[in-house]
Design goal:
This protein is of the alpha+beta class and 180 residues long. The protein is built from 6 helices and 4 strands; from the N terminus they run ααααααββββ. The strands form 2 sheets. It has a two-stranded antiparallel ribbon. α4 (55-70) packs across α6 (85-106).
Length: 180
């Protein structure tokens, strides 16, 4: 398999895993296709595989983006007991605006169900339980009618920066030391 084809498959695999949590059958088939004996003899030794990405790598990367752009981790780790509500409110506005901008850059987030909260909605039979959570007195298999308590969110696009070296994938924000 040529280098360009491997790069294309790698990108498709990466985004398929982020978006759906599974690899498409086409990518699995291409990656596991057996080479002919003649091709095996002519191919050079295979370099060691790059360290596998772990599910938590993407979570830490997203947290790092929110920290870099909006100082979210700094805000959440701060003890707010000594601050007035006015001081906290002023800080929240900046953190909110910057984190929202970072989120909109990294993801396209859209509601799962359209409509306003506390409005009546219908849920068809055979709905996706990963997308819609029914609460209250749920009897039968649907369709269901109820009050929308939360629209839910799904991502239709993920555009995170590339993962760093394996040793740095757990770093949310590096320590900073000013040398004088």
């Amino acid at each position: 398999m040529g280098f360009g084809r491997r790069i294309a498959l790698a990108f498709r695999a990466f985004f398929a895993l982020l978006r759906h949590g599974a690899l498409p059958a086409e990518i699995i088939a291409a990656a596991t296709a057996e080479q002919s004996p003649a091709a095996d003899a002519a191919s050079p030794a295979v370099p060691p595989a790059a360290p596998a990405e772990r599910p938590e790598d993407g979570a830490v990367l997203m947290l790092a983006v929110l920290q870099r752009e909006g100082r979210l981790v700094d805000f959440l780790m701060e003890d707010l007991g000594g601050y007035s509500d006015t001081q906290i409110g002023a800080a929240v506005r900046d953190v909110h605006a910057n984190c929202r901008r970072a989120l909109e850059t990294a993801l396209d987030v859209e509601p799962i169900l359209d409509g306003a909260e506390d409005q009546a909605v219908s849920v068809p039979a055979g709905f996706d339980p990963a997308s819609i959570k029914l609460v209250g007195r749920v009897v039968g298999t649907g369709p269901f009618t109820g009050m929308l308590r939360h629209r839910g969110w799904r991502s239709s696009r993920v555009q995170l920066p590339a993962l760093g070296a394996p040793g740095s994938r757990q770093i949310v924000a590096p320590a900073e030391v000013e040398i004088s």
